[in-house]
Amino acid sequence: MAKAQTTLEQEIGYLLSDALFYSEKYIIPATDGAVYQASSAWMSTAKKREKWTVEAGIYGNVFFVPNRDRSFTVSNSDFQFFQIEGAESATVPTALGIIIRCIWWEI
Description:
- The chain is mainly alpha-helical.
- Helices cover 46% and strands 9% of the residues.
- The termini are far apart.
């Protein structure tokens, strides 16, 4: 019974390790993009505003996603629990790769 419990705990550990590895590769480009977007700002004038004045405007930001951040390659040697069926490795889109692919097909 103790050996079965240890094996189950190891398998759960392998599963979590693989899930963290995959999710990190999948989401990191999107979090990097969010940081770049959060640090951008729009200014319409350098003049000091009068007290209680408000200005409204429509602004937009665009950032380009490098090809290296659109997909990543995983192989069976990267995993302890998961296994790629029918191949030794696979190219998988990142979170930004999926968004770009969806936008591209909409245009």
